[in-house]
Amino acid sequence: MQPNISFIDEPQKLLNALPEIEAMPIWAVDTETTGLDPFESEVILLQVGSPLKQYIIDCRKVAVEPLRSILEGDKPKILHNAKFDYKMISHHFKINLENMVDTMLIEQVLMNGKMKSGFGLKDLAPRYLGIEVDKSERFSFLAHKGDFSLSQLEYAARDIISTYLLAMEQLPRLHKEALEDTARLECLTVSSFGDIELNGFYLDQRRWLTIVEEAKKKRDAARIALDQAFEAVHQKDLFGAVEINYDSDQQLKAALHRLELPVEDTSRNTLIKIKHPAIDRIFEYREQQKIVTTYGEAFLEWVKKYDGRLHPDFHQLGAESGRVSCTRPNLQNIPSDSDFRACFTAPPGRKLITADYSGCELRILAELSRDPTFIDTFRNNRDLHSIVATQMYHKPVSKKENKELRDKAKIINFGLAYGMGPGALAITLNATAKDAEALLKGYFKTFPKIKEYLENSAREALERGYSQTMGGRKRYFVVPKEDDRAARGAIERQAKNMPIQGTNADMIKLALVFVRREINHRQLDVKMVNTVHDEVVVESAEAQVDEVAAMVRDKMIEAGEYFLRTIPVDVECTIADHWSK
DNA sequence: GAGGCACGCGCC
DNA sequence: AAACGGCGCGTGCCTC
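Structure tokens for the assembled complex are given below, as produced in the milestone run.
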């Protein structure tokens, strides 16, 4: 399809074109920018249009304000990787795109599990449309000055043509696979993640460094202790003792062998079974080294100079379960230790609200399995782990009485959702395989509905070739041959877990949509700053923090109840100067 | 020197 | 006999 370009390089041209643009029922939208970071680059071109006509606006010469009502309005805007353009347009023009249709997310929803990469427009255009997209022109915008070449404009136009056509190819496929609801949810969630990334999360860097410095000292002490523990078996060369690099699992394993501790690997689970003074030193060293490396100075490099905040990159479909992942930096694996979380603070006059779904996955399992004890426990707001332990061991168990039995039940309860077998349970509980097997048997005898549900999940996935969440999200599997027991076992475990983890993902995404909507409707002085699977963190003006906390809680419950129809939803909310939990 | 893998470990 | 689901990151170590 040949471009039909209207190049708008004077404000009046935009006003002239406006009636034509407004008359379109649906637009593809794209931007060309000088870089990837909205804070450090400019928008050069904004393109809106369809395969019939493409309006390319020179943003250096023409204000895009007249397009506000279109971009923020109800009619659909098709974009590829919408979060990128959303952030650019929001940051530079204070216009927040609404009703986005993201062809990249849709493709990921359609192909979830069938394909790991290749979701760029340059991959999809040839596949769906038989059009080759030459992305090389994109780089010509990076340091662009002066007028645009024809090939630059044609490139800009072709991108919205192919994005538009791509969406038209995808929509019937979504219908055919019954994935419309999931696609809609994903598209609705884009602006929440766009906002979170633009908002950033304030970090108290001084406080953070204090922890790191402390860890360095402890690590160095642990290293000295380790040297002593291994002194007798240091390998020597001509120049004297050669240090063992304790960061190298190979070297550490070899050194342990020389201590006559013949371990197969050096993982925590392996080492924990060994009684030897060196082992605790290893654990101490690794714990501190982890802090120094993963959460050390390098982490602080991500703090932006202009606002002292971390602006991570969320991958909305980072996991095949539907979960979000996070990078640069990952704000979803910050140590839950309060020392670290307390470094994420609210600026003066503001507070942080940490809100999380309590027992989310187990509630979902209760809903899905219809197990009477699980249902009853949540309905009466009792402690599930204690109840489970009581039923399994026929002894009174609570958080105070026979707590060790509660701990075991807790491990099984969580492990279940991961398709845990006796082997893994034995390792986790540090028990014999026989004991673990007996425990699992007892568990499933007590909760036959759980067993039935999980096994059904596994069987269905192998029969149909996919698993499904309550929101209708699908994860496709390549089903191995009958005789490939190991591969089938792996898929069975994934299939047991996916509906649970994935429904949790559906739920938190819907919550993010609701919370954002309410913030905007009520015009609250609130920023969403992070989300971690079953948790939302928002930064609020202190004056209205109670109102906001109640709102966040309500919206999360509303989202939860969309999925959990028979099990109550519970949200725990903490208000503090810092990130809690 | 870059890129990719395995390992180990932080989170839910 | 047996691998507990989903991630990202730093390090070591190997290959090219």
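The mean pLDDT of chain A is 93. The longest strand of chain A covers residues 350-357. Further analysis is deferred to the final report.
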